[in-house]
């Protein structure tokens, strides 16, 4: 079923330079993610890049908070830093960015408000990792009554079995799960 562009948002989740350093192999998801972003631009979906972003000194992180304490110690994902930058194959100057301080895309930020203010009902998303931000975001989005589509071949998880179980058995209970090619075909291709 073709989605109404006026009510659809595409979210890229944690496609940041610093994340690729923690997830060897994640670059394999970028070509499919780029195709999905290109479709979102062509169809005029609301495009939002969601990723980690902390204030100087990481005041959002407790000293013993693992794994975020490691990010604090290494001064990673400070807003405006190289580690917080989004992958250049997906991001263009002027794109919407929403920062979070924990796993899920809705974690302590204005994402829901932005989506509601723009009349968004359908969310299409993918992320690094499948068992981290993608799972957390789907659970929260479903609880907020958004209709969700997860693009499984634009997701990445270091554990292939976790990725398979989530995309084949868990996610379909709360979302439509498609490949990028299936999603593009369902939306009538590129405009």
| Mean model confidence by pLDDT | 95
CATH fourth-tier homologous superfamily: Isochorismatase-like
Question: Briefly, what CATH class?
Answer: Alpha Beta
Query: Any idea how many domains?
Result: 1
Major sheet strand order? 3-2-1-4-5-6
Number of strands: 6
Give the terminus-to-terminus CA distance.
16 Å
Q: What is the CATH architecture term?
A: 3-Layer(aba) Sandwich
What name does CATH use for the topology? Answer: Rossmann fold
Q: Helical percent range?
A: 25-40%
Listing every helix as H and every strand as E from the N terminus to the C terminus, the arrangement reads EHHEHEHEHEHEH
Radius of gyration: 16 Å
Give the overall shape: globular
**Which blocks of ≥5 consecutive residues have pLDDT under 50?**
none
Count of alpha/pi helices: 7
Structural class by sheet pairing and helices: alpha/beta
Quaternary organization: single chain
Largest sheet: 6 strands, parallel
Proportion in β-strands: 15-25%
Q: In words, what does this structure look like?
A:
With 191 residues, this protein is of the alpha/beta class. The protein has one domain (5-186): 3-Layer(aba) Sandwich (Rossmann fold), CATH 3.40.50.850. It is built from seven helices and six strands. The chain has a six-stranded parallel beta sheet with strand order 3-2-1-4-5-6, with helices on both faces. Helix 2 runs parallel beside helix 7. The chain is globular. The mean pLDDT is 95.
